[in-house]
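Reader question, answered in our methods column.
A reader sent in the components of a multi-part assembly and asked whether the whole thing could be modeled at once rather than chain by chain. We filled in our standard form and ran it. Here is what they sent:
COMPLEX SIZE: two components
ENTRIES:
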Amino acid sequence: MKRQDERSVGELLLDADFTTRQGLMDVSGQDASAMLRTWGEVVQSASELWATLPQPFRGTNSPIDGATMHRLESMSQAMHRDQVRRGWPGDGPSDERLLHVAETFTRAADLIGRRGGHIGPTDPAIRADLDAARMRIMHTLYVSAHSVGVAAQQHVADVELATTRGMSDRGRRAVPRGQDAINRLAAFEQLAGAYVGTQFARAAQGEHVHGPHGAERLQRALIGWDIQAHRTLAATPTPANLLLASRSQAGIATAAAAILHAGASTGHVDTHAYEDRLAPTLDATQRAWTHVAARWAEMTTPASRTDSDLVHAAGELRAAVREVAHDKTTWARPEVMAGRVDLGEAAEYFQQALSTAVDVACVTRDVAAQDANLSGPARAMSHRANADIDRAADPNHRDENVVWVTAGDVYANRMVTIPAPVRAGLVDATDALVQTASKAMSAAACLDRGAQDRPMGSGQEPAVPRSRRPEGPAPAAQEVRRVARP
Amino acid sequence: MMTTDTIDQDAGDTLAAVARLLHHAAVRAWAQAESEGPRSSLHLLGLGIHIASCQAVAMLPPDANLEGQPPTQDDVAQLLRSAEELTRAIPVLDQPAGISPLVVAICDLMREATP
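And here is the structure of the entire assembly that came back:
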């Protein structure tokens, strides 16, 4: 005899939430068909559960409450009709986890229907419980929509990989229908995400639901990152923002090396140019950004805040790179990347990004040299000052009596203005960064297809960073000016 | 939507612990990436974890206590799993707003960190 399920509605909703999380952690492209078959059932059972919840007390409900669930259900039904029309994914097994979520929602709806659906929620505590239940349902739909979307994306990536090995007509049809499912699920996720509401969702307002993919997304993400990095560093050049900016720039250099290597391996980028000029300069600039990032990290605390718009831009940049260059836990193989995007086009976008990186490096150096408000935790600053002094000083002339941070500040680990040796070390590191970024820009000039097609002496300038353009010849031909130490 | 002003104390403490775990996981991922070299894909994993850590900190009130001993674990995937498990104790309604995307981000990172 089947044991009776004695869990409460709250426990059932938690079970559904945790099941979707576990599914998201393990999902793969092979799960896509089963998940798409079962997805409609999840949404329908969520909608039925939503309808059994006692209606909010008059005047206390938001106009979006019921409307959002109706829209989500409509979207799911439209997606189902489309699947029937296309004959994909067709008949087959269901996804066990999603089925469990749907059954759990149904069980919760039964429980409410039998015991409390008629209750008028006038008590604030009951109203709060109902609000919590609605939010948990929507949260579960949000997580599971993302999960099905990830499965569909990986399915499309797997099918696209098959194109490099020759693909059947059936396989060729799988790409647009998979892409369509991805777009529909992204719209669903965005709507559910608006209900569960976040600062980061607000930061992303104005984006199109059906965003670009592949090389176009990469281009937009690189441009968006550049614009946001300049905005944030102009307005709030804090160590936390500079840390994220530096780590993201290091990430751009790492990604550029991976994608250009793939381009060189597949004939989209000149192999000698990559091996002899691009790869060494990209590695050097990556190390320089990483070194500078470590310096900024010393000046932050775990509680330091980072500009949410910068965080969002960095997240989109990372997602765009992953879409092109990653395969699960590591870099995709060159032929896989070549199957996803035009690597020559991607190389051009990185060429532009490496140009603008020089400008970000210059801004970073200017902050290091000139911002009088730079501060850091006393212990880290004391340690860094002594380490830099030890490294730089003549052992015969070391001044043992200078105290850079007071004992009281170190004891309490207060935030202190960065000591002179720390600033000097930071300026040295950012000077070196500007030099290496400039070399990477020069090396990457060979990726500019437009410049290659232009006749010599056509009068068109090579790409140089915006803010440095009036200062003189392109950094390829000059030593970038060093900033005087304060 | 409620703001960070209204975070329940217990939820705030749990979220602070999540932020600490993510911070440590990012540091560990970057340390591993640096030992592998400038072309390691772990640089981007570290960046992703750091971004999630920034999201967690942004949901906390300004006076939240994020100091304390670093976690004893060093394995990045295990640190992420611990962070995800802690988020299960945070109510999705009582806020902080934004917990759902953070949960999704951590689950995505776990998939990325687990071969």
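What stands out: Residues 215-374+418-454+461-477 of chain A form one domain. The two ends of chain A are 81 Å apart (CA to CA).
Send us your own complexes using the same form.
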